[in-house]
Design a protein that fits this description.
Helices cover about 40% and strands about 20% of the residues. It is of the alpha/beta class and about 230 residues long. It is globular and about 45 Å long.
């Protein structure tokens, strides 16, 4: 079952992420949301009666983080800036999520990455893993964590190249045991649909969506695509 209410408020952080355009566009089109509040240091090339923009300001988070579903897109640049002494509680992603949770925002949809691991030699992979753990501990009704491969937005590109790439990829998959599909970039529009759909579910708890999940969804959608 999915949530059928049509008066939800979506909170989106941050506007500079490659996913932001697709996510905000689809949230505005979704009948379940009457307002979409976007936070970040830049405005998207989108205007709509349901859409409002806010500069990200730590001092005003408590008064602005009011809504139903928070879509939080991890900002990797901040962690890189403070490699030597970064603390999870100092990350913008955590601070904005904490403010939302304290204001009784029901759900968090957090965009992480496929290589997230506490034992990784990569700094950002380790930081994301600890951040995920901290976000799951916040008092949200539901937390949905997404770990796709590299996110790309090819919405304005020709599908001709995609068809050729699919044929080549399927052949290489047979040779490599599925390694091509495993590391295939995740399309922004597909990821946005998946995140929004997850936010409409009626299940309480903590949910993790691995990279393979998006490959499966993409293949099912291609099977339904009209020729």
């Amino acid at each position: 079952m999915e949530i059928s209410r049509d008066d939800k408020i979506a909170l989106v952080f941050n506007s500079s992420h490659v996913l932001a355009d697709s996510l905000v566009t689809q949230l505005l089109q979704h009948s379940g949301y009457e307002q979409v509040l976007v936070f970040g240091d830049q405005k998207l090339n989108i205007s709509h009666p349901k859409l409002s923009y806010f500069d990200f300001d730590l001092s005003t988070l408590e008064t602005q983080m009011i809504g139903n579903d928070l879509f939080c897109l991890y900002e990797i640049a901040q962690a890189k800036k403070y490699v030597s002494d970064i603390k999870i509680k100092d990350l913008y992603s955590f601070q904005i999520a904490k403010a939302a949770a304290m204001n009784n925002v029901s759900q968090l949809c957090f965009l992480s990455a496929s290589n997230t691991s506490k034992t990784s030699m990569n700094f950002n992979s380790r930081i994301r893993a600890h951040l995920e753990e901290s976000l799951n501990a916040l008092p949200f009704w539901a937390v949905h964590t997404f770990r796709p491969t590299n996110v790309v937005d090819t919405s304005n590109q020709s599908r001709w190249g995609e068809k050729i790439a699919d044929r080549i990829g399927k052949g290489l998959d047979q040779v490599t045991g599925g390694m091509i599909s495993k590391f295939r970039p995740t399309e922004a529009s597909l990821l946005a649909r998946t995140m929004i759909k997850a936010a409409q579910q009626l299940k309480e708890g903590r949910f993790l969506y691995h990279a393979s999940y998006f490959v499966d969804v993409e293949e099912k959608e291609k099977g339904l695509r009209k020729i």
